[in-house]
Amino acid sequence: MTFRQRHLLGIEPLAPAEIVTLLDLAERYVELNRRTVKRADALEGLTQVNMFFEPSTRTQASFELAGKRLGADVMNMAVAQSSVTKGETLIDTALTLNAMRPDLLVVRHPESGAVSLLASKVDCAVVNAGDGRHEHPTQALLDALTIRRAKGRLQRLTIAICGDIAHSRVARSNLILLGKMENRIRLVGPATLMPADGFGCEVFEDMAAGLEGADVVMMLRLQKERMDGGFIPSAREYFHRWGLDAEKLARAKPDAIVMHPGPMNRGVEIDGTIADDIRRSVIQDQVEMGVAVRMAALDLLARNLRAERGARATEEGIRV
Ligand code: CP
Predict the structure, then answer these.
(1) What's the per-residue H, E or C state across 9-30?
(2) Does residue 261 have its Cβ closer than 6 Å to ligand 1?
(3) Which residues pair with 77 in a beta bridge?
(4) C-alpha 320 – ligand 1 centre gap (Å)
(5) N or C end of the chain: smaller count of CB under 10 Å?
(6) Other beta carbons within 10 Å of 250
(7) Cα gap 171→167, rounded to integer Å
(8) Rounded distance between C-alpha atoms, residue 213 and residue 190, angstroms
(9) Which atom of ligand 1 is closest in space to residue 261's alpha carbon?
(10) From CA 196, how far away is CA 186, in angstroms rounded?
(11) Does residue 96 contact residue 107 with C-beta atoms inside 8 Å?
(12) Is 229 helix (H, G, I), strand (E, B) or coil?
């Protein structure tokens, strides 16, 4: 097994072989999740705590299901009812939970870098469930699994990532992962929502040109919570120029797939008819793959945690 990480904080530290290991294991969990009885024991006896300092439907629900299906004791910390509201800091909150000896900590936080900082203060394995505009590694991994299943490969594809690139951790994690797997990545969107350096990718302001011949059209949500000014003219104008409709999609390959990480703003980022067209849209597949990928990530981290603890116990035994 090739997966040497103690934490899953981003796609950046992962080697291509580690990504493949995780996706291959996730395939097995896709099968398990389609059975009537969805049970395995990879996390038996372990405690998983989910701490979400930003709203979430897909990520939080799928991490909870993933942990429970693998036999962990799962606790969702209710941030709105916690002592965070009395001014307790992220680190003090994490240290407090760490003292209760969890094994896996899943964290979403609005500040870029907050999850890595937290990981340096605790003893357990930490998973980044999205930090500011930095990374959302499990989203990129579930997107990769969805693409691999739909296109039969994860290499040599032309992938257009469209919309609010500048504020999107989903875009960042995806372009790192898809770049590591040797795909051709295009960033498409208004100049106001494009990072200054374009992350070294091909950049298109014109949607039709950006989608020309694409195998994968990945739409993004407008991250209004991270915008501190007028980045788009109006929702109507945005949809007209950068929203995915049938006319723009016709520029991509006839078998191109349509993705969106959710939550979607229908009629702004994407036409609802396209989002619901199961001949083109894999948006619900992305949600399904999310549970399997998170099971694989928790399983691999738990294996490394057990190995590390086993090695430490052996070393201490020898010293005694
Ligand atoms: N894609 C994603 O992260 O969705 P949630 O915010 O609902 O978790």
Answers:
(1) CCCCCCCHHHHHHHHHHHHHHH
(2) yes
(3) 51
(4) 48
(5) C
(6) 11
(7) 9
(8) 20
(9) 1
(10) 15
(11) no
(12) coil
Residues 219 and 211: their CA atoms lie apart, in Å, by 11
Does residue 263's CB lie within 6 angstroms of at least one atom of ligand 1? yes
Tens digit of pLDDT at every position of the chain (320 positions):
789 999 999 999 999 999 999 999 999 999 999 999 999 999 999 999 999 999 999 999 999 999 999 999 999 998 888 999 999 999 999 999 999 999 999 999 999 999 999 999 999 999 999 999 999 999 999 999 999 999 999 999 999 999 999 999 999 999 999 999 999 999 999 999 998 888 889 999 999 999 999 999 999 999 777 776 667 778 899 999 999 999 999 999 999 999 999 999 999 999 999 999 999 999 999 999 999 999 999 999 999 999 999 998 888 886 65
| Pairwise CA distance, residues 125 & 142, whole Å | 20
Q: How far apart are CA 250 and CA 154, in angstroms?
A: 23
What's the Cα-to-Cα distance from 109 to each of 79, 103, 136, 250, rounded to whole Å?
A: 11, 19, 11, 38
**Number of residues assigned to the chain:** 320
Quick check: CB of 57 below 6 Å from ligand 1?
A: yes
Q: Which residues have CB under 8 Å from 319's CB, separation 6+? A: none
Ligand 1, atom 3: closest residue by C-alpha: 59
Index of the ligand 1 atom closest to the CA of residue 60:
8
Spatial separation of the C-alpha atoms in residues 156 and 229, rounded to whole Å? 37
Residue nearest atom 4 in ligand 1 by C-alpha distance: 58
Q: Are 156 and 216 in contact (CB under 8 A)?
A: no
Closest CA to 220 of 278, 168, 272, 255: 168
